[in-house]
Design brief:
By secondary structure, the protein is mainly α. It is 76% helix and 0% strand.
Length: 193
């Protein structure tokens, strides 16, 4: 079953679950579908923010309360975990806002933040604001892309149209993530010291 079919069939609950599991692809598709008028734009943003917030809170608490578990130990062995910790130490607030946009750090970051000294209340507040900003931005990208394609005469009616739009969105997100990671590393190339 395609993402479009799931969202069309289950609506905002699919956006909520998809934002927690898949992320950008589902939320941007929600923006595309909202442009068609099949879902309310504000509803897509709210469902995506809630799903992202709750998933990241869960991963934070996993890191905070189950540091010695096998799952957390496996995450801690990943090189992305060490990078996330370094960024948390240097830019704690900025990192909490930005990790959703950083490819390769998205999943391990809330666990790493949970194992850090960041207060849970501070994380919850920043996470809520960041989830809303992220869901608004990604939904807006999908909505704007649908509008641009419609202005160019494209009709998003088939799964292939959505697949093409999603590939374009993924390329844009990857480019933004690459740019942001480079920016956080001070303009150094990946792997450079």
């Amino acid at each position: 079953m395609s993402i479009e079919t799931l969202i069309a069939r289950f609506g905002l609950p699919a956006i909520f679950v998809g934002a927690a599991i898949e992320g950008e692809t589902v939320v941007a598709t929600g923006g595309l579908i909202a442009h068609r008028g099949l879902l309310p734009l504000a509803g897509v943003i709210a469902a995506a923010a809630a799903g992202s917030f709750l998933a990241d809170q869960g991963f934070f608490w996993l890191g905070r309360s189950a540091r010695q578990s096998r799952i957390v130990a496996r995450i801690r062995r990943q090189s992305a975990y060490a990078r996330a910790l370094r960024l948390i130490e240097r830019y704690p607030t900025a990192f909490i806002f930005a990790f959703r946009f950083l490819w390769g750090l998205r999943t391990v970051s809330p666990v790493a933040i949970g194992t850090s000294r960041i207060d849970w209340r501070r994380f919850a507040i920043l996470n809520a604001v960041a989830a809303l900003v992220w869901s608004s931005a990604v939904t807006a990208v999908g909505y704007a892309l649908a509008g641009t394609l419609a202005a160019l005469g494209a009709r998003l009616r088939t799964v292939e149209h959505y697949a093409l739009a999603i590939v374009l969105l993924a390329a844009l997100a990857a480019g933004f993530g690459w740019w942001l990671r480079r920016r956080l590393r001070g303009g150094k190339e990946p792997g450079a010291r």
